[in-house]
Amino acid sequence: MGSGIFVLPSLAFKITGPAAALAYVIAGIVVLPAVFSKAEMATAMPVSGGTYLFIDRAMGPLLGTIAGFGVWFSLVFKAAFALVGLGAYMSLFFDVPAKAVGLAIATLLIGLNLLGVKQSVKFQTILVTIAVAVLVGFVGFGLPDIRASAFEPFVTHGGIGLLKAAAVVFVSYAGVTKIASIAEEVRDPGKTIPKGMFISIGLMILLYPAVVAVMIAVTAPDVLAGTATPAAVAAKALGGTVGLEIVSWTAIIALISMSNAGLVASARYPFAMARNRLAPAFLAKVGKKSGAPTNSIMVTGLVMGLLVATVPILELAKLASAFLLLVFAFENLALIAFRESHLAWYQPTFRSPLYPWMQWFGIVGALVLLTQIGVIPAVGAVGFIVAGILWYRGFGQARASRESAARDALRLRSQDRLVAETFKAVSSAGLQHVLVALRRPARAERAQSLIQLASNLVAPGGRLHVLHLDAKLENVVPSIDDIAEMAGRDITVTVEYAPEANPRGEVHRYVSGAAVDLVLADLPQELQATKSIIRDWRWLREHLPSDSAFIRNRPPTGMDTICVLGTGGPYDPLKLNLASRIARRENASLRLIHVVQGEASPEQIASIEDYHRRLIAILDVPAVSVVEAANDLVQTVSRLSRGANLVLMGAPSHRFHLVTDLADRIAEQVDCPTLLIHTPTHENLSLRRRIIERFIA
Fold this sequence. Notes:
Layout: H1 3-6, H2 8-16, H3 20-44, H4 50-59, H5 61-90, H6 98-114, H7 117-142, H8 158-169, H9 189-218, H10 221-226, H11 230-266, H12 268-275, H13 294-310, H14 313-341, H15 357-370, H16 375-396, H17 405-426, E1 431-438, H18 444-455, E2 458-468, H19 480-487, E3 492-497, H20 503-514, E4 518-522, H21 531-543, E5 547-552, E6 561-565, H22 572-586, E7 589-596, H23 602-618, E8 623-629, H24 633-640, E9 646-650, H25 662-669, E10 674-678, H26 680-685, H27 687-696
Parallel strand pairs: 1-2, 1-4, 2-3, 4-5, 6-7, 6-9, 7-8, 9-10
Antiparallel strand pairs: 5-10
Helix pairs in contact: 2-8, 3-8, 3-9, 3-14, 3-15, 4-5, 4-12, 4-14, 5-6, 5-11, 5-13, 5-14, 5-16, 6-11, 6-13, 7-9, 7-11, 9-11, 12-13, 14-15, 14-16, 14-17, 17-22, 17-23, 20-21, 24-25
């Protein structure tokens, strides 16, 4: 409690008139789902960090970092807002600069928090008890003066004005979930944390609108809209000088209380991020006697003082609300991620009712209010999201190795889909149209090997297309009869010649006209003479309407072991379809390889092993699974693929990317022929999934 009720009512009244009381109700209702969500997550994970920790574990360190930045700044902004408001109330009694008072109080609070949370909480309890008692008395004395005429017209700027006011006062409810930030220091968190949150939100959602209604009833509209101390003005109108002094001193006490609570809670966010290696390690330092995160408290206090000295009061309130709206939306999304992931360790003692409808209501409600907060605060919130992304990419990504509940759930759903798609692919007759595209400098043995490989993939009755992109290859490529005999099956062979002047256009035209399913080509070693060929094949890889595969290293011969990599690219159904058909024709076995991060969780490794078991069950060729955790991906893949005659791997898209991608680097290290596979189907069907993975990875 603090600035939300002692400073903001005048601004809310100016925006929407007497409906300001209703704006507090709307804001409280939008907060309510996040209270239930956070209470559940806090009972499952009673450790310091609160919102940051929950979002980090639910959706990964990137969104966790963004949330950590957002909630830290929102609480610091609100605490600074309270200190500036404190100066306005102090000026009613003393001739002192408001900002100087705020800076002095900030210094005292830093010192108090360095002593430990026990001392801070005792101080907090006294301040809040006094504030609640006075506000209840204020409402009791003011109720008889409430007249219907004071609330006409009720809404002065329509529904949009009401939503704008609700968005601005949203910051008033920032404190109702702060207890989760220090859950590690709370006795019996399974009961204490939900109880604390529910008492807080229940009291505030009743007391705030009642106090604002009394202010509106006893204060002249022009006076209420123009004051920075609405509680003092209303108290004077209600009880004269005595009322003004009681309420003003209570406001001072409450604003100090809120600033202290903001510092207590916000300082735990850099502390928690440092423990997860997403912030500098010095922020994780804890005082030997106090047990408080001393460095984090000092850094947070310094930022709070800087805001007090430089940022206008109303902008502080709007920025704090903007951050909170985003953070509370993330909290509701985090609970959905935990519930849907079905993690064995997630066992909260309290569960949110009306799941998931309550959480979706909270997400939509927060985003609606965010659109009404104003341009500058919204841009500020987006700016800090960008800052969080840059911080994570530049500092935290190399240090973060945790999996998230959302990624676990997404991976499990993807596995179901991929197993079904793989079964459909490998149980089909084969590909109807396979195109082998040949360019110089192709030797006869490489061309024959490529054609032999392609013939293994064509379904009976299908067609094998051979496209010469150089007339000089005529003597290199076998005849149509030889190719048909090489295939040893009932397939049709077509051989065509195309001018070399425009190989990209010729291949693209042929693929579109012949409804080709797969293009197979030789990707030569990168030399000065082959750079144009490599550029053409990579361009086609990104632009062909069909799947494509490119052989790297020497041509495959005498195959008995074929490796399929789950690392280095996607497209499992296509990789396994091609690998199983080649293995069936060559009497070879498959080795399914997947390398995870060195610090991968046992749950992640177990889920991949289970995925491999499900794939092996639907394959009609012998197969084994190899899952290994390692930090050096390229070297580990090279080691695990030793003894293989062919390696199949996905070639992820890197359009406009001029450097060698991960698949190419692996192919350079693998000591056997490598087939790099690309499919446009993955990009078209899985755009939403790839976007989600990008942010929760």
